[in-house]
Amino acid sequence: MILPQPRFVPPLDPDFRPAALANRAFDAEVAAAGGEVRLVLGLERANGNLSRFETRVFPEGHPRFAANLAHVERIVKFLLWARGGWSLFAGGPRAIGEHLARAYAPNGARGFDARFLGEQVYQKPFTVISCAAEEVPPACESGQALGRHLDGCRIGFDLGASDLKVSAVVDGEPIFSEEIVWEPVGQVDPNYHYSRIHDALKLARSKLTRLDAIGGSSAGIYVDNRPMVASLFRGVPAERFGEIRNMFLRLRDEFGVPLEVINDGDVTALAGAMSLEDDGVLGIALGSSEAAGYVDPHGSITGWLNELAFAPVDYNPTAPADEWSRDTGVGSQYFSQQCVFRLAPLVGIDLPEDATKAEKLKHVQGYLEAGHAGARQIWESIGVYLGYGLAQYASFYEIKHVLILGRVTSGHGGDLILRGAKEVLASEFPKVAAAINIQLPDEKSRRVGQSIAAASLPRLRQSPATY
Questions:
Q1: Is 317 found in the same domain as 252?
Q2: Mind listing the pLDDT tens digit for each residue in 67-82?
Q3: 269: closest CA among 261, 281, 279?
Q4: Would you say residue 51 has pLDDT above 70?
Q5: Do the domain assignments include residue 384?
Q6: Judging by DSSP bridges, how do beta strands 259-263 and 213-218 pair with one another?
Q7: Rounded to an integer, what distance in angstroms lies between the CA atom of residue 245 and that of residue 230?
Q8: Interatomic CA distance for residues 84 and 253, integer angstroms
Q9: Is residue 395 exposed (0-12), middle (13-18) or buried (19+ Cβ within 10 Å)?
Q10: CA angle 106, 110, 113 (to 5 degrees)
Q11: pTM of the predicted structure, to 2 decimals
């Protein structure tokens, strides 16, 4: 592929080659060559839902046909982690489908992605189906209009790695909130997780005159209220993980009310949509990794994965590799504290040994707040990354608002990131800049907190007036 040098170069990463520019260059080259052919990608996920993505590629026999392979592989990688899927339809030149089948074979270059999405998330063998463009099934997107249900007496909860937050909410107003310390990550017994969550819900229930619904958020991938992959429960052995998958269904039956639990990124996006009183919201949290959530322009939570930590934003072949998937140039290395730790040594900032990641981040942020020029370059680099990253995201999401949050945005760093991203978009992608409002959370967007948004997820079975 052609990898254009960006107009804005991250101060600490001169080899950065944005995916958005490479994709734009590829599309322009194909259009200029003439005779391009249609490529339709279909990704089937749970309950028969299917996403489609259409583009144009060089025809077979064209001197540049081989460029299709790398380009389409990166597009598929992004789509799979943004939207999810266990079955991939490659509708177009057969050689492209064959290339994808090799890449997503168990021992292929994308074998991690195939195993993770197929076996762990959707519990099906990952398959690649080569076919003609017209043979790709039609799109079937059944997003849920979750949230914004503020009526009645509700419980909202949020599961974190160090605390479990629970709130009692009456008609949209929290009347009780508690942060309960727990240590879920190393626990091997599913009953530990069940009992701690059960007790927290019971505590919140005791503050209400009645209970109408329960809504929750948690890191991880959730399908139909079932955690398929979640770092909080990674200590539970595989042979007992079925108890975790059914845990929230069990809690729903025990409390006898509607219960919905979804990814915490989607709840964050929902909270932003409720505060902004608008839809088409992409929330991006720059924390220990990159977390994202999305509310579409119709106000629905799509059921997409939105695991943008694994989605490529840099096509530089020597880009840093993700420690889990071993793929290069993906979001976790650019929009998280991992990026801060990667860049800090380049400006002479040593990270303290025997410190937690949160302490290391605060250590580097201390240099920034003190006016250290090198520390400033770290956050300026993240701002450039984000500008080009948002242009990439806008090719796959319909976005009206982007909320940037997370620990990396604390203090002066958030303003530097926001300023850099806006400058990149205004200059390189003016149409995207005109269409998207990018902001850090302000007082208005904080007025609907995570607990209220989570509590608002379920629709009541009957009107509270009938109780």
A1: yes
A2: 999 999 999 999 999 9
A3: 281
A4: yes
A5: yes
A6: parallel
A7: 10
A8: 28
A9: middle
A10: 85
A11: 0.91
Tokens of 364: 């580097």
| Overall average pLDDT of the 389-405 stretch | 96
Residue 20 lies in a domain: no
Residue 394 belongs to a domain: yes
Count of domains forming the chain: 2
Residue 433's contacts (CB-CB under 8 Å, 6 or more residues apart) are: 422, 425, 426
Q: Is residue 87 part of a domain?
A: yes
Residue 43: strand, helix, or coil: strand
| Dist. CA 266–CA 215, nearest whole Å | 12
Q: Where are the beta strands (DSSP E) in 121-182?
A: 127-131, 153-159, 163-170, 173-181
**Residue type, position 3, single letter:** L
Domain check: are 177 and 273 in the same one?
Answer: yes
Distance CA 280, CA 401 (A): 6
Residue 274 sits in a domain whose CATH number is 3.30.420.40
For residue 208, give its domain range.
145-467
**What does residue 322 show for φ and ψ, rounded to 5 degrees?**
-70, 135
Segment 198-230, tens digit of pLDDT: 999 999 999 999 999 999 999 889 989 999 988
Average pLDDT value for residue range 82-91: 97
Burial class (CB in 10 A: 0-12, 13-18, 19+), 345: exposed
E-only strand ranges, 201-355: 213-218, 221-223, 226-229, 259-263, 281-286, 290-295
